[in-house]
Amino acid sequence: MAHRLADETSPYLRQHVDNPVDWWPWCTEAFAEARRRDVPVLVSIGYSACHWCHVMAHESFEDPDTAAVVNRLFVAVKVDREERPDVDAIYMDAVQAMQGHGGWPMTVFCLPDGRPFFAGTYFPPVTRGNHLGFGELCERIGELWVTRRTDLEQQAGAITEAIATGATLPDPTGDRRARRLDEAALALLDRVDGLDGGFGGAPKFPQTFAIDTLLRHHLRTGAPDSRAAALLCLDAMAAGGIFDHLGGGFARYATDRRWLVPHFEKMLYDQALLARVYLHAWQLTGEAHYAQVVRETIEYVLRDLRDPAGGFHSAEDADSEGVEGRFYVWTLEEIVDVCGADADAVIDWFGITAAGNWEGVTILERPVRGDLIRPPAVERGRAALFAARERRVRPGLDDKVLTEWNALMISTLAEAGAVLDEPTWIEAAADAGRFLLDELRVDGRWMRTWQGRAHIPAFSADHAALVDAFVRLHEATGEPQWIDEAIATADTLLDLFADPDGPGVFTSGIDAEQLITRPKEFMDNATACANSLAAVALLRLAALTGDERHRAAARDIVDHTLDAAVRIPLGFGHLLLAAELDLLGSAEIVVTGDRPDLVAEVRRRYLPRAVTSWGAPITGPLWEGRTEQGDEGRAHVCRDMVCALPAVTAEELRQRLDALD
User: How far apart are CA 508 and CA 527, in angstroms?
Assistant: First the structure.
């Protein structure tokens, strides 16, 4: 009964005094009671500052129906790991032996002699995706105790032996999930051009989602082929003519195999997606030329595509003065005239010849891939060429502001500004976010496009991209209002676009013009389709808020498309990130108080399956019980609703982050 915990010294145990679960403290009498009743023992271990311990308590231990199941089937023992680290250490080994990783809350089912036969961490109240519901788990174990007790006893022996020897028991379910993702990466590797990078022959498009998938695969598995293929492509594009070596930014695609001759138009969405994947390459490798590409691409967007009102224009044309590429190409004579004393260094760096490399003129490229950090003479010549080019007639500007593309750029600016410590980028992202809220949301309805006024009701891709942008803005600024906007937009996304009879979202809303059919897109193109955008954005948002409606909608999309994504990964590249978030789980990182050192430690890591919250608390359970202020703040690292001990120092946080897979 509750009075068993009332006299305990542990605040954590006393928090459970009023639970309907018939808790015992850790004591020999509890195990004697289990022998008397001939039932297993449920050992629940946590500590007072454990966020997901509180969540599981609210969801399950405070629920009378769940408590009745626990009381009927088990003797329930509650342990404060801070008071009993000896007990915690034993059962933590059991969790790690079975699951491959551990954390709190810890949920262990034991024989009456204390040997564990099943061990896990957080369990939701009802089954959600890959997470078995706690009540259902208890009923299953109760049935096995009656029908297959010998198997449980043998399992207890195996776990006890694994604890003693430090071995890890196989996790066939987790291995099977990981293998699906490995299959997708291998399918991508089969398509890689091993000489010039990319996938297939000319024309070549920047397959950013596929490259990102290979980077994540290397991060997760250490596979050298995935890393090499991704970096080959990034190096080839950044050295080629598809990249603007003077003004930054990328052209839409290359007409040739080796990325030299671009189709010269520049699209906003390409800058957003390419800057992001180069940012991830820098986080993964630390190689400075990747960060340089990010900086120059973002500088181009802020300089040439930013509308004075705060949003971003859509594109620049390929032509100027009626000639494709005229703005971008050079003759040898022009190089010599503009660069003066630095001309020889510039000519050597870019491999410039009198004959040129395209129709008698030169598209600037760097023949030595990966060597992009320019020496002073080349940098001076580059600045002179850029200034001279600025006096030319510019290509035409498509100055419409599209909600989806702006949201993609906001996400990149916020993420890159945080990672590379560029606060002006974060502010530009926030300015654009406020512009969209002010100008593209009319009477509560998001609109698609703006040119002095907003018009055309926004589509599902606009909404999904906005959800991600608002989440990224919160991660970059620590301001909770961005999460509020993300929640509101996610709700609207599902209210207006969700298919009531199947998975995913339709392209157009229920309030849109009725065409002959209502399309629903699942394959990515130059940009991610609405459903893959939605799956990623909703899963990341749900990891921060705990909203099960958002999580369930995303998982339905993943379930529907995973087989196709594994077979045809080039068509479902962004969906594969959602699959990783769903199948392998996410990490939730909360930094309380005023601890910029801890925030910086998180930001410098490449953590594609992590979400971060800091600054002021946000809506949802993630901040519950986390009230540290000022320099008393700490970092709470949880993985898939299981928390490690809070990190007080940057070194402790590094250890927690190192443990994330």
Answer: 17
